[in-house]
Amino acid sequence: MKYFVRELENSSPTRLYLIVGKHGTGKTKALKKIAEQLNEPIINSNMELSKALLEIPKMDRPYRAMKFFDKLPEMGNSFLLLDNIELLFEPELKLHALSALRNIARKKSVIATWPGEVIENKLLHAKRGHPEYFEGYLEDEIVLMSSCEES
Predict the structure, then answer these.
(1) Mean pLDDT in runs of 10 for the chain (151 residues)?
(2) Are 142 and 16 contacting, i.e. CB atoms less than 8 angstroms apart?
(3) How far is CA 80 from the centre of its chain?
(4) Among 132, 103, 102, 99, which Cα is nearest to 115's?
(5) How far apart are CA 101 and CA 16, in angstroms?
(6) Phi, psi for residue 34 in degrees, rounded to 5
(7) What pTM was computed for the model?
(8) What pLDDT does residue 111 have?
């Protein structure tokens, strides 16, 4: 992990790093270690987005969700650490989860947990047929696989 943090500090100014794994594989634990070493806060995306949309009528939520993600780069210091991104997959918000993260990473490096898996260069969330199913092709994102069971 220390090697990874050193690489982060010497990397290009904007990049998207994804810590990918299914539920209970240690994504949050890994992100906490990174946050500690970088001295950066972790943003609970679900909580912050929920707060931002709480008073907003349903029909206006997709637009407001996009605006919320436009403002996210103002948070944090050099990096933006995002955990609990499940609301990105909420069908009502009409967001493309991977594109939303890529857009943020154009302004500031993002390290985010991704609940799902990678299969043949495809980033997946949920199972096919589930309302929150997502499938997107990886481009230049750096993927860290989280496979240790949390205790």
Answers:
(1) 62 82 94 93 96 95 93 83 96 95 92 96 96 95 76 44
(2) yes
(3) 9
(4) 132
(5) 7
(6) -65, -45
(7) 0.89
(8) 95
Q: How many CB atoms lie within 10 A of CB 93?
A: 20
Give 17's Cβ-side CA count (13 Å radius): 26
Whether 43 and 72 have beta carbons less than 8 Å apart is answered as yes
Q: Which amino acid is at 33?
A: K
What local confidence, expressed as pLDDT, does residue 63 receive?
95
- According to the model, what pLDDT value does residue 78 have? 83
Question: Which letter does DSSP use for residue 138 in this model?
Answer: -
* Residues linked to residue 144 through DSSP beta bridges, in sequence order: 19
Length of the chain: 151
Distance of CA 131 to the CA centre of its chain: 19
Phi, psi angle pair for 141, to nearest 5°: -70, 150
Q: How many CA atoms lie within 13 A of 95 on its CB side?
A: 26
CA dihedral of 46, 52, 57, 63, whole degrees rounded to 10: -90
Alpha helix (H) ranges present in 23-146?
A: 27-38, 45-53, 61-71, 97-105
Torsional class of 118: left (φ above 0), alpha (ψ -120 to 50), beta (otherwise): beta
148 backbone dihedrals φ, ψ, rounded to 5°: -80, 135
